[in-house]
Design brief:
There is one protein chain. It is built from twelve helices and 14 strands. By secondary structure, it is an alpha/beta fold. It has a single domain, classed as Ribokinase (UDP-N-acetylmuramoyl-L-alanine:D-glutamate ligase), CATH 3.40.1190.20. A nine-stranded mixed beta sheet has the order 6-5-1-9-10-11-12-13-14, sandwiched between helices. A five-stranded mixed beta sheet has the order 3-8-7-2-4.
Length: about 325
């Protein structure tokens, strides 16, 4: 009997989201549209340079897998999240946010001294999100942060691809995959970011190992991982490593593979203002649907509509009540 629908592992980051211009990014030598790891000095330098923008900033708990797990919880999943925060004000804020979303976590989280991870999320007028991340204590997430008792009572283990950048996080992701296989828990992985795939492809292959049950990626990540020139060839290669997968394609919709057939989910016409968190919401809604016994078609429809709701407003997550609105609309 499963106690949890989804067990997630990933970074714990407190996000500060601000609106910037393309000129701001160019002037500060920030590569647009990707996640860049920085040290605390660089992040403070950026915050100081952009201080005039911070009056409109929003603080929220984040991290890619955390956004997905919190979304799934608000839809109605029972969830557990392995992450690492420090014994500081941001750490307290973060754990309180998990509790508010009814997400369980390791009882020893938040007891160690250090600095809780922080992410500066910069949104340009074209709705593209650019992230500069100081991982802080999240960089030290390790095998000891895995709760095997919670994992073996879960239906799915969800691994955040960003973990591949950490010398301790990558072995933790690999170990979680091994333990999931041992206990018959299905595994899902997000490729996270095109730059992650470009620079850490071999590490991602280590995490995937002999193959995973469900892969989430966007088209750029799919092409980068498979090193294919077109989506058709990428799909052929993805079928060799994942039993099922979802490839998000922005305004072109979503391509799903349910293990037998390919399914195309049409997009709704929308005007995005902030793409931050769209992929996270997609994964969270999709996993919620699958763990409730829904079909791939239904999961794709729910995940697409939820992601579309995220990108037409600022912030990587939806207010709790909007999850039920999305469910009602899809179920109508």
């Amino acid at each position: 009997m499963s106690q949890y629908d989804i067990y997630g592992i990933g970074a714990a980051l407190v996000d500060t989201e601000i609106e910037v211009t393309d000129s701001d990014l160019q002037n500060l030598a920030i590569e647009k549209g990707v996640m860049t790891l920085v040290d605390e000095n660089r992040q403070n330098e950026l915050i100081s340079a952009l201080s005039g923008h911070l009056v409109a900033s929003n603080r929220a708990s984040g991290g890619s897998a955390a956004n997905s797990i919190i979304a799934a919880s608000y839809f109605g999943s029972k969830t557990f999240y392995s992450c690492k925060v420090a014994n500081d004000e941001n750490g307290d804020f973060y754990l309180q946010d998990l509790r508010s979303a009814d997400v369980n976590y390791h009882v020893h989280n938040g007891v160690k001294n250090g600095i809780t991870g922080k992410c500066l999320v910069m949104i340009t007028p074209d709705a593209e999100r650019t992230m500069n991340t100081f991982l802080g204590i999240s960089e030290t997430i390790s095998i000891e942060d895995i709760d095997e008792d919670a994992l073996k009572l879960s239906k799915y283990a969800y691994i955040e691809g960003y973990l591949v950048t950490s010398e301790t996080g990558r072995p933790a992701a690999i170990r979680l995959k091994e333990l999931s296989d041992k206990h018959g828990v299905k595994t899902a992985l997000s490729l996270s970011d095109p730059a992650i795939v470009q620079f850490f492809r071999e590490g991602l292959k280590e995490i995937i190992g002999s193959g995973i049950d469900l892969l989430f990626c966007n088209q750029a990540e799919a092409l980068a991982y498979t090193q294919a020139d077109n989506l058709d060839d990428a799909v052929t290669e993805l079928k060799k490593i994942a039993k099922t997968f979802a490839v998000t394609r922005g305004a072109k919709g979503v391509l799903l593979f349910d293990g037998e057939k390919e399914i195309h989910v049409e997009p709704e016409p929308i005007k995005p203002v902030d793409t931050n968190g769209a992929g996270d919401m997609f994964a969270g809604a999709f996993l919620y649907a699958l763990t409730q016994g829904k079909s791939f078609e239904y999961a794709g429809e729910l995940a697409s509509r939820a992601a579309e709701k995220v990108v037409v407003q600022y912030g990587p997550r939806l207010p709790a009540e909007q999850h039920q609105e999305v469910l009602s609309a899809v179920n109508a």
